[in-house]
# Entry
Amino acid sequence: MLCPACALDQLTPLADLGEMPVACGMTFPSPQAARTSLSGRMSLAHCAACGHVANIAFDPQLGHFDATFEAALFHSPTYTAYATGVVDRLVKRYDLVGKKVLEVASGSPVLLAHLTDLGCEPTGVPGSDPEDGTFDLILARFVLEHMADPGGLLTQLRKASQRAFIEVPDAGYDLTTAGWDCIYPHVGYFGSTSLQALCARTGWRIVESGKAFHDQYLWAEIEACAPTTPAPAQVPPLELTFAAATSHWQTTLTGHKAVVWGAGTRGTMFCNRVDPRAGLIAGVVDRNPGKHGRFLPITGHRVLSPTDLTTLQPDTVILTNPAYRDEIAAELATMDVTATVLVA
# Structure
């Protein structure tokens, strides 16, 4: 099997993670529906040539790209400020006022509305199939990691514009920490070397790149150029410590009345790995009212409203993303919830 990033034949087994929830980040109307939802196997392989990591057991008939994954994040002021700040910077850098911007995999109206407010002419494509046309910039944020063939998408993007902004979760963060964002819907895990290799072979040049959001995201501004064959870089595999993290949190939560804050992908994976039988965690809190009273896939943990904590009064609140610690601690204080806040 060829590497999805550099297209070289250097994939070797890295880790078999077993069965994971396919509908990670989604919720279900009943515990029964949640517990009988689909699971899929995650068998990670590492490319020695560019460092890319891919789930070689991914079954596209089980998992499909859902652009609404990011939409739920806009219930957080912290994330909204970050995402709109990215757009502000790009509009200023490329003088996009009065110009056409295409957002690929547009799962939320927030950024489209923000682009309109800034004086741009935005178009949103809900799926991963961009329109042909002439755009001054393409936004392709958090879509490449969902693609079994990310090169096919980048090749398509060249039909719509000569300039794009791409953003993906950073593999160095996701795979060397506890791995809560190592999820079935993510087919691939990009580092800077593998992202550069993917861009080069599909006819894009990275103009500028970096990390953001507590080093969790990897972004790049790219311009169209002639495709080139990436040279093997010989990137060593990352050391995964998922099992140790799972064991640590199972021990830590024993004897406590604990809740997890966030019913997105990370919260779902934390519950599935740490509390598969739903005996340690009293509930999962989320700001999104559309999730309240619903249940996480496979484990069936119930999703609570933040106001439910005033009655429940947990002694421990688990966050799976450090970026939201200040925001959530402040909200807990307004509700007189004195629980200890821990970042997993």
